[in-house]
Amino acid sequence: MSKKRITILKSSRFTIVSIIVVATLLLSGWFYIDFIEESKRIQNISKNDFNFFIYKWFTIAIIVSMIVAVTLSSYIYSKNNKQRMYYKNIIDSSSNIVVVVDKNSIIDVNKTFFKYFNKYKTLEEFKKEHESISDFFVEDEGYIHKEYNGENWLECLIKNSNNNQVRIVYDSKEYYFSVGVSLISPKDGHYSAIFSDITKEKIYQKELEHTNITDPLTKIKNRYYYNVQIKKESANANRYFYPLSLVIFDIDYFKKINDGCGHDVGDNVLIEYTKLISSHLREGDIFCRIGGEEFALILPYVSKADAYKIADKIRAKVEEHKKIFAITMSFGVTEYIKGEDLELTFKRADKALYEAKNGGRNRVVVR
């Protein structure tokens, strides 16, 4: 529990005790003065005796009041402490990370927090190096950022609760969490944030997505991925006015390899030469297997003149390789025309490939 919260509890207990003491003194004083006044009328006692009598009874009243106050205070403190520890134990037993935060810093955490951030033993140690858990947020698309458009992560999460996932990297480990936030102290601007670990689900989802977009034999991307990416890249090319080229190519006489040497050899040829081609591509190039021995290469920011050079370089590397089986490839190259139907772009590249085949194979044709 934070120091501020403990201070508030202590202040509340002090106020209650003070009220009890004052009330007890006033009631005791009133009762005994009334009693003595009545006794004075009945008995003729001296003034000194009267003053001493009042002093004695006031002293007794104060002592009694203090005993009552201390006893009551101890009872209240014990009850509050038990209740506080009860809820603290419940929160600490949660498998989720529970933190109390404001817009700038972290105020309190549960024990689970330190299972993830295990370099630190206490919150004080953590706060010496970091202001908030948001220091570890990775700014990926679709996940909460530490700050976005001048707003911190709490404000973003409150405004858009649908985007409630964060990616955290700590000590070379990657975690994914679903986050829920509740306002617990409007006056202080304190929020409770619960981080539920969804890392296993995310890993499974990524593996499933990878399986859906990956060719099982060659391990490069498949036809489905090609269809998704060509739409995405053409939309970006239209929006940002950059060139986009498409290369369609296949292995010459591949049927003869399968028929003459068997499908195992044919599969090994596909695996070997896709590795070769992949090693000569840029990071942003998109290489997909779209048919049996047919491939597509999406080249963002590349004109068809430069795409020709890239395709011819690959053609030469394939011809030189000669591992497992000496093969050649034919290539059709085209450039996406802004706003056109993607089917037309593909047909144009495919027609260029057809011309390369009819022109003697092992060549590049641009249309």
From TrEMBL:
Domain GGDEF span(s) in chain numbering: 242-367
InterPro entries reported in the protein's UniProt record: Diguanylate_Cyclase, GGDEF_dom, Nucleotide_cyclase, PAS, Rev_trsase/Diguanyl_cyclase
Reaction equations catalysed: 2 GTP = 3',3'-c-di-GMP + 2 diphosphate
Molecular function GO labels: diguanylate cyclase activity
UniProt enzyme class: transferase
Domain of life per record: Bacteria
GO cellular component: a single term: plasma membrane
Keywords, ordered alphabetically: Membrane, Transmembrane, Transmembrane helix
PANTHER family given in the database record: DIGUANYLATE CYCLASE DGCM-RELATED, REGULATORY COMPONENTS OF SENSORY TRANSDUCTION SYSTEM
UniProt cross-references to NCBIfam families, sorted A to Z: GGDEF
Name of the protein described by the UniProt record: diguanylate cyclase
Organism name: Sulfurimonas crateris
